[in-house]
Automatic annotation (TrEMBL):
SMART domains to which the protein is assigned, alphabetical: REC (SM00448)
Protein name: Response regulator
Organism: Terrimonas ginsenosidimutans
Keywords: Phosphoprotein
PROSITE patterns in alphabetical order: RESPONSE_REGULATORY
Limits of the Response regulatory domain: 4-118
Domain of life: Bacteria
SUPFAM superfamilies with a match to the protein in the record: CheY-like (SSF52172)
Location of 4-aspartylphosphate modifications: 53
A matching Pfam family: Response_reg
Length: 151
């Protein structure tokens, strides 16, 4: 079974480029433009890895990562934050991201990061799906508060 990777960025061009690169490498890739799309996709797909930009309109990647890492049904999913911001390491530490990638991407570092997380043996996700409705409601409340800023 292919590893499902979920890309999250509010810049369509970035999503297109990363999806093409990962698809050519043999990964199954889904994309999300914002928090609302992300949460639905995470619960439905239970991806093996989430690659997420920090700087997005509405709910930022650091906040989304923190929500994912504090939810019983998503905390096991590795989250890699990417950004050109100088504070990427501080944001990642605060939200408990599993790794960071700096923009512009170093091809070797990107490939190494993928291999590191894809090689992990992930737990059975079926137990996490049963708690998804409760987590989805809590997260929807947060994204609703920011809905005026979400694409």
């Amino acid at each position: 079974m292919q590893t499902q990777i979920l890309l999250v960025d509010d810049e369509v061009d970035v999503l297109i480029l990363l999806k093409a690169k990962l698809s050519r490498a043999g990964y199954e890739v889904s994309t999300s433009l914002n928090a609302a799309h992300l949460l639905d996709n995470v619960i439905r797909l239970q991806p093996g890895l989430i690659l997420m930009d920090i700087s997005m309109q509405g709910v930022d990647g650091g906040t989304l990562c923190q929500l994912l890492k504090t939810s019983d049904c998503t905390q096991h999913i590795p989250v890699v934050l990417f950004s050109g911001n100088d504070n990427i390491h501080q944001v990642a530490a605060a939200c408990k991201a599993d790794a960071v990638l700096h923009k512009p991407y170093d091809g070797a570092a990107f490939d190494s990061m993928l291999k590191q997380f894809i090689a992990r043996t992930l737990p059975d996700h079926s137990q996490h799906r049963t708690r998804s409705a409760r987590s989805r409601e809590g997260i929807k409340m947060i994204t609703h508060q920011n809905s005026n800023n979400i694409i």
